[in-house]
């Protein structure tokens, strides 16, 4: 494993200390406190995901922002932080929603989106031609991903189903005991046939070490495809992200259609980030 810089170690220590002795039911307030104390720099990457930009611009029909009925596709980014990926998806034509447990994060994301939708930074595009002539909408929702009572601004009663969802550093931020709930909630909010995209991080970190961020090597497959609890030890994980010698099942809500190393990703991934795509069964 590569050596951590002292800055990264002290940042990691701050995150670990925030959650070390906090009961799991209070983790949401732990995240809100970090936002309120102006400490989002502990995880904020400062730009949209280069790996997601390349995927959206390169994967053809899968990322057509229109449904076959001709309406715009709705995309959700749970635990969206400042909303970089939400804005990027809207600039590529999707109606994009970001969900955040922190009021402060929602306000920061709304301010960010207000400026970026009219004057987007270059990092939103691999190819400037990919900018949609008909951008989608951006909506930030305040809510707990594990509770189905988000405010859908005029769409009451029940969970809205999305055409697509994206996860980066949300699954690795939550306590391992909540992983099954994460997979269950993803299964509830994505339409049958809809897509779940995960930029898997951190894969270089031993899953037995404390988080956040929690090491996720092998976790996505275990949760989403095998329908297990995701609390694996991270040993014997093959290059395909699957646990070797496990009694494989396909009891999960998803089928994996792609698992690839992105050409570009954040440097924090240390060259190990993997991009996976799942279809809701
Ligand atoms: C590590 S940060 C990642 C943020 C963002 N994905 C990014 O790449 O910048 C995790 C985020 O999840 C949010 N969060 C934590 N628990 C949540 C929950 N139960 N529901 C919604 N958001 C949550 C936190 O407030 C935080 O902004």
Automatic annotation (TrEMBL):
Keywords from the UniProt entry: Methyltransferase, Phosphoprotein, S-adenosyl-L-methionine, Transferase
Coiled coil: none
Location of the region described as Disordered in the Swiss-Prot/TrEMBL record: 235-254
One GO-annotated biological process of the protein: methylation
Domain of life: Eukaryota
InterPro entries listed in its UniProt record: SAM-dependent_MTases_sf (IPR029063), TPMT (IPR008854)
Molecular function GO labels: S-adenosylmethionine-dependent methyltransferase activity
Protein name as it appears in the record: S-adenosyl-L-methionine-dependent methyltransferase
Organism, scientific name: Penicillium angulare
């Amino acid at each position: 494993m590569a050596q951590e810089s002292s800055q990264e170690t002290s940042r990691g220590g701050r995150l670990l200390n925030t959650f070390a002795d906090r009961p799991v039911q209070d983790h949401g307030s732990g995240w809100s406190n970090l936002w309120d104390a102006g400490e989002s720099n502990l995880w904020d990457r400062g730009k949209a995901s280069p790996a997601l930009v390349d995927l959206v611009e390169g994967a053809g029909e899968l990322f057509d922002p229109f449904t076959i009925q001709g309406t715009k596709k709705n995309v959700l980014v749970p635990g969206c932080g400042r909303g970089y990926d939400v804005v990027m998806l809207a600039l590529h034509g999707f109606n994009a929603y970001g969900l955040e447990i922190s009021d402060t994060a929602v306000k920061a994301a709304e301010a960010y989106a207000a400026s970026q939708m009219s004057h987007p930074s270059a990092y939103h595009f691999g190819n400037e031609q990919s900018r949609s002539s008909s951008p989608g909408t951006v909506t930030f929702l305040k809510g707990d991903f594990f509770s189905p009572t988000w405010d859908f601004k005029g769409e009451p009663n029940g969970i809205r189903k999305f055409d697509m969802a994206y996860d980066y550093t949300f699954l690795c931020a939550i306590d391992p005991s909540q992983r099954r709930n994460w997979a269950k909630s993803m299964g509830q909010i994505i339409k049958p046939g809809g897509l779940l995209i995960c930029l898997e991080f951190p894969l270089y970190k031993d899953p037995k070490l404390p988080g956040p961020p929690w090491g996720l090597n092998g976790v996505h497959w275990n949760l989403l495809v095998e329908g297990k609890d995701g609390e694996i030890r991270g040993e014997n994980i093959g290059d395909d992200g699957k646990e070797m010698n496990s009694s494989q099942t396909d009891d999960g809500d998803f089928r994996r259609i792609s698992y690839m190393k992105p050409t570009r990703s954040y440097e924090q991934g240390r060259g190990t980030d993997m991009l996976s795509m799942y279809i809701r069964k």
